[in-house]
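Bench notes, afternoon.
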Amino acid sequence: MIKVTTKEIRKGGMNLSKIWFSLHALRAEIADHISRDSTNDEVAGEKSLTFPDPLPPSLSATAARSLRSVRISTDTINVFQPSQMIPVVISLIHTALEAITIREELDQGLKDNKDYGRDAKEAMKVENERWEKVRKSIEVKVKDKVEKAEV
C-alpha cells in the first residue's frame, strides 16, 4: 500500500492536489483494511494511519484559481498552496517518529555520533601532543642554529 502511494506521489510531481489525493486514498485504504480484519489478532493491535485533512485554501488562492477557470470541486479538498499541507506533514512526521524501527535508528545514530565525537577528541589530543613534540624539536634546532651563528 505504502509503496504504491509513494510511486503515485513521485509520479504526480509537485502537484499538491495529486499528493493529497494519494495520501487520502492511502489513509482510507488502511482504515478499511483494519476495520475489515478487526477480528484478526495481528491487525487488532495495529494503529491506523491518521492525519488531518489539509487546511482549506485561502480566499486569495481560491479567487486566483477561479479566475483561471480551474474547476473547483466542493466534495474534495483542493490544495493550491504548500502551506495547506503543513498539518498533514507534521502529523506524518509524528507518526514516523513513533515507529519503533525509526526510533531505534535515531537512538543508534545518537550513540554513533557520541562515539565519533569521542574518537575525534582523542585523535585531536594525539595530534596536538605530536605537534608539541615537533614544535619543541624545531625550537631546539633554531636555538642551536642561533647559538652556532653567535659563536
